[in-house]
């Protein structure tokens, strides 16, 4: 708690000294978010964006706050706007895929994950997510391909090992 308390005090000082500074507002939002008040954090992020519509940190964190509040359409909107500004951001691509998974839209999730592996081709977690989605869609050969790739970069993932084992038994 002590570091968060200090961060909160500094964030308050910064916002009080310059009410319109997007970085100060974003930092204040971050301390509130860390304390678990996503609703209030979202207000600080929105205020930061009113002062600088291209403040990518505020936009990203607003998307995360909406996601945590289960306001999925609004979260999606934030990450799509961010994608237009930062088309090769691995974090943004990951969030978009994650949101489409939450929305039960595996085809869209797959599309975003495929874009993501063009940016981070050796991420075993992303590769196994693709394997999982293709498997759920009934595309065993694509699932096999991505699970094998995931295994190649991280051979200790038990879920991947179990899936590959079951695949070879079938």
UniProtKB/TrEMBL annotation:
<dbReference type="GO" id="GO:0036064">
    <property type="term" value="C:ciliary basal body"/>
</dbReference>
<dbReference type="GO" id="GO:0097546">
    <property type="term" value="C:ciliary base"/>
</dbReference>
<dbReference type="GO" id="GO:0060122">
    <property type="term" value="P:inner ear receptor cell stereocilium organization"/>
</dbReference>
<dbReference type="Pfam" id="PF13181">
    <property type="entry name" value="TPR_8"/>
</dbReference>
<feature type="repeat" description="TPR">
    <location>
        <begin position="124"/>
        <end position="157"/>
    </location>
</feature>
<dbReference type="InterPro" id="IPR011990">
    <property type="entry name" value="TPR-like_helical_dom_sf"/>
</dbReference>
<dbReference type="GO" id="GO:0001822">
    <property type="term" value="P:kidney development"/>
</dbReference>
<protein>
    <submittedName>
        <fullName>IFT88 protein</fullName>
    </submittedName>
</protein>
<feature type="repeat" description="TPR">
    <location>
        <begin position="90"/>
        <end position="123"/>
    </location>
</feature>
<dbReference type="GO" id="GO:0019894">
    <property type="term" value="F:kinesin binding"/>
</dbReference>
<dbReference type="GO" id="GO:1905515">
    <property type="term" value="P:non-motile cilium assembly"/>
</dbReference>
<keyword id="KW-0802">TPR repeat</keyword>
<feature type="repeat" description="TPR">
    <location>
        <begin position="56"/>
        <end position="89"/>
    </location>
</feature>
<dbReference type="Pfam" id="PF00515">
    <property type="entry name" value="TPR_1"/>
</dbReference>
<dbReference type="InterPro" id="IPR019734">
    <property type="entry name" value="TPR_rpt"/>
</dbReference>
<dbReference type="GO" id="GO:0005814">
    <property type="term" value="C:centriole"/>
</dbReference>
<dbReference type="GO" id="GO:0042073">
    <property type="term" value="P:intraciliary transport"/>
</dbReference>
<dbReference type="GO" id="GO:0097730">
    <property type="term" value="C:non-motile cilium"/>
</dbReference>
